[in-house]
């Protein structure tokens, strides 16, 4: 996978191609689409809002290209068929946007909520060219593993006690 040229990216970010109003309109549309997303709509919705060469990174994935991103989202819906994504807050500055979201699903018959935030960089057409998702992978993954989970919960409890 090719790395992002950070110097070029910084230069580009200093010269946004969208106004804040344009950015807000695109992020509102994206937030609404993602909040209504179902498994059958993944490919169409992502094609509408993301570039073909989109770069995506979260705690478990790093990829470039819309086909791979579509696959990640479709896999997520297969693993979590009752998943609902709720985008409830966003902010824009130039071509950079942030969306605060909550992923709601059930696990073993129990409701689970995963809170996170996405940093998005938009192109001149308002399509997402970079998405970086941030959420607590320890709380929602590692603490549930049979062996390491106990250690992670113990470490978290110790940290809270201090």
Write the layout of secondary structure elements.
Elements: H1 6-13, H2 20-35, H3 42-49, E1 50-57, E2 62-64, H4 66-79, E3 84-93, E4 96-107, E5 110-122, E6 128-135, H5 137-140, H6 148-161
Parallel strand pairs: 1-6
Antiparallel strand pairs: 1-2, 3-4, 4-5, 5-6
Helix pairs in contact: 3-4
Describe the structure in your own words.
The chain has helices spanning 6-13, 20-35, 42-49, 66-79, 137-140, 148-161; strands at residues 50-57, 62-64, 84-93, 96-107, 110-122, 128-135. The chain has 162 residues and is of the alpha+beta class. It has one domain: Nuclear Transport Factor 2, Chain: A (Roll). The chain has a six-stranded mixed sheet with strand order 2-1-6-5-4-3. A hairpin with a 2-residue loop joins strand 3 (84-93) and strand 4 (96-107). Helix 3 packs antiparallel against helix 4 (66-79). The N and C termini lie far apart (41 Å).
Task: Please compute the radius of gyration using only Cα atoms.
Answer: 17 Å
Distance between the termini: 41 Å
Q: How helical, in percent, are the residues?
A: 25-40%
Binned strand content = 25-35%
List low-pLDDT spans: none
- Specify the number of helices: 6
Would you identify the CATH architecture? Roll
Main sheet makeup = 6 strands, mixed
Summarize this structure briefly.
The chain is an alpha+beta fold.
List keywords for this structure.
single chain, 162 residues, alpha+beta, Nuclear Transport Factor 2, Chain: A, 6-stranded mixed beta sheet, 40% helix, 33% strand, globular
